[in-house]
Fold:
Amino acid sequence: MDELKLYTYIAVFGSFALYFAIAWWARAASTSEFYVAGGGVTPLQNGMAIGADWMSAASFISMAGIIAFLGYEGSVYLMGWTGGYVLLAMLLAPYMRKHGKFTVPEFISDRYYSKTARVVAVICLILASLTYIIGQMKGVGVAFSRFLEVDYAVGLGFGMTVVWFYAVLGGMKGITYTQIAQYCVLIFAYTIPAIFISIQLTGNPIPQLGLGSTLADGSGVYLLDKLDQVVTELGFNEYTTSNMNGSLDMFAFALSLMIGTAGLPHVIMRFFTVPSAKAARSSAGYALIFIALLYTVAPAVAAMARLNLMNTIEPAAGQNMEYSERPQWVKDWEKTGLLQFSDKNGDGKVQYSAHEDTNELVKVDRDIIVLANPAIANLPNWVIALVAAGGLAAALSTAAGLLLAISSSISHDLMKGVLTPNLSEKNELLAGRIVMTLAILISGYLGLNPPGFAAGTVALAFGLAASSIFPALMMGIFSTKMSGKAAIAGMCSGVGVTILYVFQHKGIMFIPGTSFLGGLQPNWFFGISPNGFGAVGALVNFVVAFTVLKFSDPAPKYVQDMVENMRTPGGSGAISNH
Structure:
């Protein structure tokens, strides 16, 4: 066994052993522990767990890859996802925690005094969560297939088994403490290589500052200026210039990510695990700090990885890499199929450019950038192994949170709340574990054929959450008169128009060859791309809801009093199973 594989096995399976031990120690014995960890998690612990829940495969593996290839416009992911937590901390988390229930659909059922509203919320939650989890499963498959040198499907199956053990056994209690450990693993795995590479390229050990520093070669050229020069010489757009379809599209995309973040049920559920509304707000503050440790490093990782990639392929002006002399990291990633070369002119060299007819590096999957970055920079093998463990920790932590959200929505909201209200706590706990097992199998099946790279898939999930759940929660908290009928109409309209638009423009048509909205970029609604349409869907949700409210009866007096009490400072509702 070579040194890299040995280090990788130690890092990956050592971390898995830690997760298993924590899951066994923190196994859930009641529905309260299974759904909300008993409501006794401290704000600091919860903030770290939220950080791990949020550092998904999209954040850890895909985000820097997207920024590396898109440049400036890739920062929209950073703005949207970070801003969403500010909304969550200020506008949603404290009030929903004070209400004192297990899940988002349960809150919507109480607020809109309707089991129908609860069912609609469950459907919207499952749509968003399943779409989101596809990206996590791809992250698991990519990391395993490369570093353990197994087939993508085998790696995905192994990852599913790990999640099943600690999520099904421990529920939210096991997931919370496992995610704390996973955060420690992934943050070290992300920042240590970044520090090494920043020192190599700029001499500055702080990656965030290295991004704006001059190169260490004594040329006096700034890193970003050098990157602009390199990519434009190869025919690509300037790295530091946006090439989005206009400022409105970028604004809509950022807004969709932001309100989608605030509306994701698996994120909101984390705030039900703390003992009070004040603790919920503190959790969000801690989470922002823990998230910032990675998010502020991501742009530096992206730019430095792109520069190293270009310098590897074209080490000097007019010179190209001899394919027969390609470095080991290229050979390793070729085995996965995520990096592919075709010698179009038969000269034995790699020509890489923005032009399809001359580009011989025909595929560089964006998801490999972070995982391949240490090898491209010739870092020690133990650093490469650490990144493998970090990537898996990121994907598995978020997958567990999503699976719990799906499980609780079906076992607690649909079965206990609607279909079988007399279900005992013991049977509800059993149902939750069975549903989670089925959810793992379904998500694994979807992960075998993921529609696009991880963060792109995740962006669609945010659009679905933004257009359905977020408006319902906002109106439920800040509009005392909003009625159940109006909220249901808004949710159905918002998620419906978003699904129609996204599916149409992504080419996923129910009737091949037909085109209701055009299907081409010039026919985008006011130039807004499908990934940003969740913001439009949210607007539709609000407009429809308030229009229906105008022509229907407002919420009953007892519901209006409940909303007023929820918004009044002080106290916190005890976690209730009813």
Q: What stands out?
A: Residues 3-305+380-566 form a domain with the Sodium/glucose cotransporter fold (CATH 1.20.1730.10). The chain has a mean pLDDT of 80. The two ends are 56 Å apart (CA to CA).
